[in-house]
Design brief:
Layout: H1 5-23, E1 34-41, E2 49-51, H2 53-63, E3 70-82, E4 85-95, E5 101-113, E6 116-127, H3 138-146
Parallel strand pairs: 1-6
Antiparallel strand pairs: 1-2, 3-4, 4-5, 5-6
Length: 186
């Protein structure tokens, strides 16, 4: 049985609602989006997986002002898995308070619950290179930055040697390219 048009509308609304609730700080409404036992896979950011909405809420609060001020989702593609679940792939754009932005891919599994469709699994993968090229992951960047001399925080990125304004230095969607000329960005 194919997903109905109504299922597709409800799933798209679910994916779109995430940004609205998160940006408004309505973290207590996560149960409208996620199953209670959701797995939120942030391995690409060196964090591992978060399990459950309470843990996700605490992680968002701990991140505080380092959270994006705008979560924007686009390019939603829904694929039926079975009568009670679907895979959803979408693109996300996160805008930070300082105006910088990063791009991610969301890979979700949504399941039909008694109160509607909910995300039961989400993998967030940062997009760091154009045209699908592989780039250093957040963990690689963190390890390189950790090699900076101890004491005061490093003043340049260990990957591209850009000043601390480099996205890699801040461990958000790295924009520099290892092996490129120092001071260039992709």
């Amino acid at each position: 049985m194919e997903l109905s048009e109504q299922d597709r509308i409800e799933i798209s609304d679910l994916i779109n609602l995430h940004g609205h609730l998160t940006d408004a700080g309505d973290l207590d409404r996560a149960s409208e989006l996620f199953t209670p036992d959701v797995t939120y896979d942030l391995d690409d950011f060196g964090v591992g997986s978060l399990h459950g909405t309470a843990v996700m809420r605490e992680a968002a609060l701990a991140l505080g002002n380092a959270n994006p001020v705008g979560h924007h989702v686009t390019n939603i593609v829904i694929t039926r898995i079975d009568d009670h679940s679907a895979g959803v792939r979408s693109k996300g754009i996160g805008v930070m308070a300082d105006g910088t932005a990063g791009s991610v891919a969301y890979d979700d599994i949504v399941t039909r619950q008694p109160d509607g469709w909910k995300i039961s699994y989400r993998k967030v993968t940062a997009r760091r290179a154009a045209l699908g090229q592989q780039e250093a992951g957040a963990r690689d960047v963190l390890e390189l930055c950790a090699r900076q001399p101890s004491g005061s925080p490093p003043t340049t990125c260990a990957v591209c040697t850009q000043p601390t304004r480099c996205m890699s230095f801040r461990s958000r969607a790295p924009a520099c390219r290892p092996g490129s000329r120092a001071g260039t960005r992709s």
